[in-house]
């Protein structure tokens, strides 16, 4: 039995005489508990959030000077009623109420200033809101094109903040569905890179054509992104870009294109497909459904009980029989107010008159079982 005992002890005794292993620079994977992993993730998240101090150095421009001719409505699309209030109110509510409240809860600085770029003929209707948010909201007049509107709004922002705003976030008022996480991401990316734009990978197959009748080629979809707003740019770079665009007589289609013209980088920030732009009557129907699925609260702005719209809310009339042009909106029907008259109940449903078509302003209970926004993002 002695030989058996020696045989059993041999493997253990052999390790005792092995020389110590040489130090290695290679990392060794050590199993960790679920709690340890969660703690590590939490620490990483808090460290990342510490890098973002908020919006104290960022001003917001809301572009609301468009005519919305493709809607074939009797007023610009940003003033059309979406569920219970004008499309524009969603952006105002987000930047003046929801985002500052979020910042207060997270210990972040709120937006430094909001500038509303709007045609002077509509400014009187929104003056009560501007008055109530004095020091936080101001008007700027639009230009002939988007570039001129952004430049006017930027100059107003610089004047109001005495140059204290380092970044400007330009948002289209026809995009009422942008979320706070998207804003946090794109502003955070811009503060790191200098310029950032929200966007999503293009889902559609894109064909190029010279004459609008014959396909020239198919553009590889893997490299295409559909860009949204806000688009966030360093103020100093945008001012330089405006000068270059004027001198070189360049044509730019959006805000970050100006930065591209300078040869400076622009970060693509992944957004959500639900951040759609209201362009056609069908978009209003989709936006209404998304808001219903999100369970969005009623829009509440300081200035409730004002005479905006002249009494009870008015509905915008959309006439699909018009082939082109924009009908003149009467002052009494210029804007709908969410805080004059009785509040709309969630089960109420109102339709805008669109001839042979229609879209929903209120909440349709039949949509309760519809797709959630998360299912629409890919």
Overall 3D geometry? globular
* Tally of DSSP β-strands: 11
Strand order of the largest sheet: 5-4-1-6-10-7-11
Q: Are there runs of 5+ residues with pLDDT below 50, and where?
A: 1-48, 304-378
Percent helix range: 25-40%
- Describe the main β-sheet briefly: 7 strands, mixed
Q: Helix-strand pattern, N to C?
A: HHEEEHEHEHEHEEEEHHEHH
Percentage beta strand: 5-15%
Question: Please, what is the average pLDDT?
Answer: 74
What structural category characterises the helix and strand content?
A: alpha/beta
Distance between the termini: 71 Å
> What gyration radius follows from the Cα positions, in whole Å?
27 Å
Number of helical regions: 10
List keywords for this structure.
single chain, 378 residues, alpha/beta, 7-stranded mixed sheet, two-stranded antiparallel ribbon, disordered N terminus
What does this structure look like?
The chain has about 375 residues and is an alpha/beta fold. About 35% of the residues lie in helices and about 15% in strands. The protein contains ten helices and eleven strands. It has a seven-stranded mixed beta sheet with strand order 5-4-1-6-10-7-11, with helices on both faces. A two-stranded antiparallel sheet has the order 2-3. Strands 8-9 form a two-stranded antiparallel sheet.
Layout of helices and strands:
Elements: H1 2-16, H2 34-51, E1 58-64, E2 81-82, E3 85-86, H3 87-106, E4 113-118, H4 120-132, E5 137-140, H5 146-161, E6 167-172, H6 180-193, E7 195-201, E8 206-208, E9 217-219, E10 225-234, H7 235-248, H8 255-261, E11 267-270, H9 281-294, H10 373-376
Parallel strand pairs: 1-4, 1-6, 4-5, 7-11
Antiparallel strand pairs: 2-3, 6-10, 7-10, 8-9
